[in-house]
Design goal:
Elements: E1 2-8, H1 12-23, E2 29-31, E3 50-51, E4 60-61, H2 62-76, E5 79-81, E6 87-89, E7 95-99, E8 102-111, E9 115-117, H3 125-128, E10 133-134, H4 137-140, E11 150-154, H5 158-167, E12 173-177, H6 187-194, E13 199-202, E14 205-212, E15 216-223, E16 229-233, E17 236-239, E18 243-245, E19 276-278, H7 290-310
Parallel strand pairs: 1-2, 1-8, 2-5, 8-19, 10-17, 11-12, 11-17, 12-13
Antiparallel strand pairs: 3-4, 6-7, 7-8, 9-18, 14-15, 15-16
Helix pairs in contact: 1-2, 1-7, 5-6
The structure holds flavin-adenine dinucleotide and NADPH dihydro-nicotinamide-adenine-dinucleotide phosphate (NDP).
Residues 120, 154-160, 162, 179-180, 184, 206, 240-242, 285-286 line the site of NADPH dihydro-nicotinamide-adenine-dinucleotide phosphate.
């Protein structure tokens, strides 16, 4: 028997899609993943402490917020399996989704598998993760522990520039560590940091070790040209070295951009294959927030509902304009 909708992934995008499709009586089935991409079911917010920018909650722990979303999905009628999807076959309708030794057929797939922030795996990183080290300045930068401190950002892309600029609202000083003698960020973003008096550039430099007591206080860093090591004060350390979208299981069947994110039609969640929708961080490398992920999960559900009610689906051609 074919399912109406299978949702793959269980962050804010997946749960918003589940709540909307369940309330539309589409009887969705969600595969929430089992440590998929190294992240627990519930997604990236399960790896953080307080979330202070999700409307409706002045402050709530990330895991608690995701537990609430899961409960709401179940209450609306979503069936949830704690399993990771291994592969999909999108070459014909109904699509198939393979999980272990079982294969499910479905008219619609909503991909909400998120992205994983890259980490350096430097000594001390695990010890001070969320105790001074974060992978999201926009999420954590405003927390009291980072106020009026010397903060460090690692990375030379647009994210590093954006996060460093954002942190200038709270920090006394910011150092950006760049592993080469140039940044890959766009000219405009570079100018923004190069002309900001609170920001200091530290070129050709990599992290050797994160150090502190209960909280991060210092970094051991190394100049890769001179091999000279030194110590840098750090009341906070923000990684901005890129994200990896969780799209491996698609194995090339859906149009992705050059960095592996699912391509969606601007302003929509349509992919290049009719009946396959993508929402949240797996298709968004600009905003990457819980509320934007949930918003696009809602869009995917509404678009899925419209798709099911509009068409006979067996002879669908590829979506154009993605
Ligand atoms: P994700 O949250 O990434 O969830 C995707 C889920 O899909 C994961 O559970 C994953 O395991 C699962 N999955 C992956 N592959 C498969 C598969 N093959 N089969 C089944 N399941 C699969 N945003 C804010 O708005 N406010 C904050 O305060 C905030 N703090 C953050 C703190 C940290 C440390 C991090 C890393 C991010 C933070 N963010 C914050 C960003 C926010 O978490 C993300 O934007 C949001 O979670 C993206 O939601 P998503 O639903 O797209 O995917
Ligand atoms: P990028 O991949 O563009 O940049 C990652 C940066 O991290 C690079 O400078 C890279 O160095 C560095 N880096 C990677 N690995 C390491 C490591 N192990 N040690 C030290 N440094 C490392 O990622 P971004 O997240 O910055 O951007 C992703 C995409 O999102 C881009 O297309 C960007 O344009 C876009 N974006 C746009 C924004 C905007 O327009 N406002 C805002 C944010 C992102 P190296 O250069 O040496 O490889």
């Amino acid at each position: 028997m074919s399912e109406n909708v299978i949702i793959i992934g269980s962050g804010p995008a997946g749960h918003a899609a589940a709540i909307y499709t369940a309330r539309a009586k589409l009887n969705p089935l969600m595969f929430e993943g089992f440590m998929a991409g190294g992240v627990a079911a519930g997604g990236q917010l399960t790896t953080t402490t307080d979330v202070e920018n999700y409307p409706g909650f002045e402050a709530i722990s990330g895991p608690e917020l995701m537990e609430k979303m899961r409960k709401q999905s179940l209450r609306c009628g979503t069936r949830i399996e704690t399993l990771t999807v291994d592969s999909v076959n999108l070459s014909q309708q109904p699509f198939s989704v393979t999980v272990g030794d079982k294969t499910y057929e479905t008219k619609i797939i909503i991909i909400a598998t998120g992205a994983t922030a890259k980490r350096l795996q430097a000594p001390g990183e695990d010890l001070f993760w969320q105790k001074g080290i974060s992978a999201c300045a926009v999420c954590d930068g405003a927390l009291p522990l980072f106020r009026d401190k010397h903060l460090v950002v690692i990375g030379g892309g647009d994210t590093a520039c954006e996060e460093a600029t954002f942190l200038t609202h709270f920090a006394s000083k910011i150092s950006i560590l760049v592993r080469r003698d140039k940044m890959r960020a766009s000219k405009t973003m570079q100018e923004r940091v190069l002309t900001n008096k609170k920001i200091e550039m530290v070129w050709d430099t990599v992290l050797v070790e994160a150090m502190g007591n209960k909280m991060l206080t210092h970094l051991k860093i190394k100049n890769v040209k001179t091999n000279k090591e030194s110590t840098l004060e750090a009341g906070g350390l923000f990684y901005a070295i890129g994200h990896t979208p969780n799209t491996e299981f698609l194995s090339g069947q859906l149009e992705l951009d050059e960095t592996g994110y699912v391509k969606t039609r601007p302003g929509a969640t349509l992919t290049n294959i009719p009946g396959v929708f993508a929402c949240g961080d797996v298709q968004d490398k600009t905003y990457r927030q819980a509320v934007t992920a949930a918003g696009s999960g809602c869009m995917a559900a509404l678009e899925a509902e419209r798709y099911l009610s509009e068409k006979p689906h067996s002879n669908d051609k590829s979506n154009s304009g993605i």
